[in-house]
Structure formats: structure tokens, C-alpha cells
Amino acid sequence: MRADVRTFNLSGMGCAAGVAGVDVARRLLLTHSGAISYAVVVSAEIVTVGWYSGKDQGKLLLNCYFRTGCSAALLTSSGTAAPVKYRLASLTRTNQIANDRSYRSGYREEDDEGITGFTLGQGVGRMVSELLRAHLVTLSLSILPWRQKLSYVLALLLSSRRRLTGDNNNNKLARTAVPPLPDFREAADHFCLPSSGRPMIWRLGQGLGLGEREMEAALMTFHRFGNQSAASLWYQLAYLEAKGRVRAGDTVWQLGIGSGLKANSLVWERVAGHEDEGERELGPWKDCIHKYPVKGT
Where is the FAE domain (predicted)? Predict the structure, then answer.
């Protein structure tokens, strides 16, 4: 690279690093408008660094799920640059590292033999749920249509009232009722979810009210490439493009969840037309897209 190229290393940010990288690039482009017009965000997972060779079964998850992968996205602040495929419509980041339970839910430590490995702490599922609730409240304000916002607020108030004033017969049920979720399918046309294993994808997708088609990109990416950490979100976008599903005016929601814990979201609006046959043959799915989706994954 040229001597005047500025580089920033975000190692250790986990599966949410790709979105964090886009945020860093966005801020640089805005701060140095005119001086800097382009930024490249490289998202990669190198499994050799975190490979665990010990005997502690609790540290073998990374070996089983994670795979090496890499992606690159070119961002620009120029309104005249061509061809531009997407416009960044929303960027939201939620960080709970200050919470000790959240921080210890996923971390690297040595086992009894002195071998370093990645450990998932107890209660990680509960901490992820708490993180997502906080994240989705903030994200919803920026991406949901007003009709959905009003409907959600009314439903939330009604649910809270029922929990507080439940009748004698159903008091316990009323108090433990789960608050309603907004319909995120009205906020985005396509979804890229954390590729943290098939059960996690299904649980997260169903929790967001998504169907199998909305979860397809995440499920098929995990089936074909495994968990590529921060790069997985871009492989999922490539899957949607290879299928020819993303058309002008569509929105794509990329949700990344990383250790810490942290949740980061990007919402892109497609401004260019959909890919022609030649463009679809350039991505990572070029030799296998016709085989997907695979049933039963």
C-alpha cells in the first residue's frame, strides 16, 4: 500500500468486528470529508490463532464451528462514485462489556495444562437475550415504520399493565408474560444473522419473528462455510445476491453479535439494480449456488 494509507486493526472484536469496522470507516470518511473518499473494510477469521489443542471439552466449540474466511467491502463518501450498490441507512452498536457477567460469558483462558482456549461462560444464552433486548429497542427507533412503532408501544404498554394488574386466577401468568416483539419484516427485506451454529440461528430467527426464508442466508452460509466470524455477514449478503433476491429499493439488515458482549447492526438500502449473470459468478457461491438451499439444515 502507499505510505499515506491509514490502517486500523480491530483484532479481538469477535463476530461483530465487521460492523465495527464499517463504523470506524464511516466516521473517518465523515471526519475527513474531502481528504479521504474511500475506505476498505476487511473482515477475516483466522482459526489458527484460537485453535485449541487441549482436552477441556468446554473449549472445543471454536474447533467445531469456526472456519477461516475473509471478505472486503469498499466504502465511499462520494455521492458521484460509481457503481455504488448500497447506501448505509442505519448503524447501531450496543456494548455491555462493563457488565462483568456479560464480559465473562465468552473469554480466552488457560486450562489445567496451560493451553489457551476460548470458553463460553454459564448463562451466555441469558446474557445474549438481555443484550439483544437492549439493542433492538435502540435499533427499532431508527428502522421501523411509524405504524409499527406505535403498534409496538401500545402492545408493550398493554402487556406491562397486564403484568402489573393481572387478575387473581392468572396473576402469575400475567406477570411472566413476554413483552411483544415488533414485526422486523416490515423494517427490512433481507436478513444476515450471526452464523453461530444452526440451533442459535433458528433460536434467534424465531425470536425475531422470522421465517425459514429470512433465515436461509445464515443457515446456508453456516452449512457451506461454517462460522467465519465477522466475515460471515458478507458471505450471507453474497448468497442473497447470488440468488438474485436483492433488488433496487430493498433493505438488508446485518446483525453481528460478538464477545464482550456486543451487538452491532447495519441496515443497507440497495440503490443499484440486481446482479446480472456475470456478476453472480464472481462471488464465493459461484460454483455451488445452484445446490442451495439444502433442506433439513
Answer: 1-158
pTM (2 d.p.)? 0.86
Outline where the chain has alpha helix (H): 17-31, 47-50, 61-65, 100-103, 124-143, 146-164, 171-175, 198-207, 212-225, 232-242, 277-280
Distance CA 241, CA 235 (A): 10
Residue 5 lies in a domain: no
Residue 175 lies in a domain: no
Count of structural domains, the chain: 1
Residue-wise pLDDT for 242-251, tens only, equals: 998 999 999 9
Q: Residue 91 sits in a domain of what CATH number?
A: 3.40.47.10
Asked if the structure places residue 203 within a domain, the reply is yes
- SS3 assignment for 6-46: CCCCCCCCHHHHHHHHHHHHHHHHHHCECCECEEEEEEEEC
- Give the structural domain span for 100: 14-144+182-291
Strand partners, 110: 116
